[in-house]
């Protein structure tokens, strides 16, 4: 699998190559998602199975990711008790989003598995279920929805205006923004990388005369954008996990 020579919408809607017309239809993006999932499971599965009291360098790297989520996202946002309780869920979200993002810069894959709406939407639904479930478990069904839609300390007449806003903000805008933010960042990143490297190929092999030298600039731009895309892959995973933890906090605490 190599990056198409001409970037476009076909990158995000590749033709199926197996099981066409069935629910198991396979295309390039589905294969990239499966590879990303397999890498995540294998890397951390092997790391967990070989964990030692005195960690190796590889174990220390894996533990760095886990401790970062636990300490800097879960506990920092939710406090010691609730942070440790939700740390495993937030760790799965962070690592899954990161691995789906980082495929955009892995040679041979060359596209983020999260650059099509299905993956960001699934993660947004997971976050949605987690923070609503946390609120219901803490306050009960009636108590949770009352706390979210009818905040205490507000004049009764103001609920006519406030309740629709809270309904839209909490139960519609939150999952929508989680989806769109991740999707738009990874989609834009892929297009920028594809344009840089396609431009480099064109300038080096097809452009005439001194114009070929401009290819050095587009190549340098491609390298810079590759590094930036690695940063964005981690940043978007962090943002997704931290927002999920914030939404959990808003659900389990009084409004």
Automatic annotation (TrEMBL):
Checking Pfam families in the record gives: ATP-synt_A
Signal peptide (from-to): none
Per its UniProt record, what Gene3D superfamilies does this chain match? Answer: ATP synthase, F0 complex, subunit A
Q: What is this protein called?
A: ATP synthase subunit a
Repressor as a keyword of this entry, yes or no, is no
Q: What is the lineage of its organism?
A: Bacteria, Bacillati, Actinomycetota, Actinomycetes, Actinomycetales
Q: Where in the cell is it found?
A: Cell membrane; Membrane
The molecular function terms in GO held by this entry are:
hydrolase activity; proton-transporting ATP synthase activity, rotational mechanism
Q: What's its job?
A: Key component of the proton channel; it plays a direct role in the translocation of protons across the membrane.
This chain's source organism reads: Gleimia coleocanis DSM 15436
What the entry lists under HAMAP family is as follows: ATP_synth_a_bact
One GO cellular component term, please give it: proton-transporting ATP synthase complex
> Keyword RNA-binding on this protein?
no
Membrane topology recorded in Swiss-Prot or TrEMBL = Multi-pass membrane protein
| Top-rank taxon | Bacteria
- Give the chief site where it resides: membrane
**What gene is this protein a product of?**
atpB
């Amino acid at each position: 699998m190599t990056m198409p020579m001409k970037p476009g919408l076909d990158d995000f809607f590749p033709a199926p190559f197996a099981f066409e017309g069935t629910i198991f239809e396979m295309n390039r993006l589905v294969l990239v998602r499966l590879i990303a999932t397999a890498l995540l499971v294998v890397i951390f599965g092997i790391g967990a199975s070989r964990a030692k009291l005195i960690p190796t360098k590889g174990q220390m790297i894996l533990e760095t990711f886990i401790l970062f989520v636990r300490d800097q996202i879960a506990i920092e946002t939710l406090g010691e008790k609730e942070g440790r309780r939700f740390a495993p869920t937030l760790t799965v979200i962070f690592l899954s989003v990161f691995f789906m993002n980082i495929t955009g810069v892995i040679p041979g894959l060359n596209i983020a598995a999260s650059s099509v709406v299905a993956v960001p939407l699934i993660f947004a639904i997971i976050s949605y279920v987690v923070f609503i479930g946390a609120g219901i478990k803490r306050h009960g069904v009636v108590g949770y929805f009352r706390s979210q839609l009818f905040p205490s300390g507000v004049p009764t007449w103001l609920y006519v205006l406030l309740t629709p806003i809270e309904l839209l903000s909490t139960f519609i805008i939150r999952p929508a923004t989680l989806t769109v933010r991740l999707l738009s960042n990874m989609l834009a990143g892929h297009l920028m990388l594809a344009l840089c490297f396609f431009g480099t190929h064109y300038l080096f092999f097809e452009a005439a005369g001194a114009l070929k030298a401009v290819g050095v600039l587009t190549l340098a731009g491609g390298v810079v954008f590759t590094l930036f895309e690695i940063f964005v892959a981690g940043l978007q995973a962090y943002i997704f996990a931290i927002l999920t933890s914030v939404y959990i906090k808003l659900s389990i605490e009084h409004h």
